[in-house]
Description:
This protein is of the alpha+beta class. The chain is built from 5 helices and 6 strands. The protein has one domain (2-116): YaeB-like fold.
Amino acid sequence: MEIEFDNLKVSKLFSNLSLMEREKGKEITRKIKLRCDQIHAAETFDIYLKNAPGKCHPLKGNRKGQFGVSIDRNKRLVIMPIVENGDMSEQSLKKCKKIIIKGVIDYHGDKETIYIP
Length: 117
C-alpha cells in the first residue's frame, strides 16, 4: 500500500528515522517503523485491517474516517484510508491502496496529546 503524510513535519520525521529517533526515542521509532512496514506490505487497506497487528480500529467523533493503530500503551498511529467520496464501506476499503499518516496521538481521556503532529 502507498503511504502519504498529512503535513511536512510528519513527512520529515517519517522519512528520516534517525531524526525521529533523536527527537522521540529509539523504542517508539522502532515500533512506528514496524507498523509502517506492515501497512506498506498490505496490498489494500481491507487486507491490512483484517490482518493487522496493533488492533487497527475505526475512530469516532472529530476523527471519523480515521483509524488508530496501537504503537505503545496509549499512543496510536492515526491513519486515514484514501477512498472515493469518504465511503468507508468494506467494498471501498477493498479497493483502497493508499493511506495518509496523520501522526502519533494519545486520544484517550478528555484531550488529545499529540506526539507527532
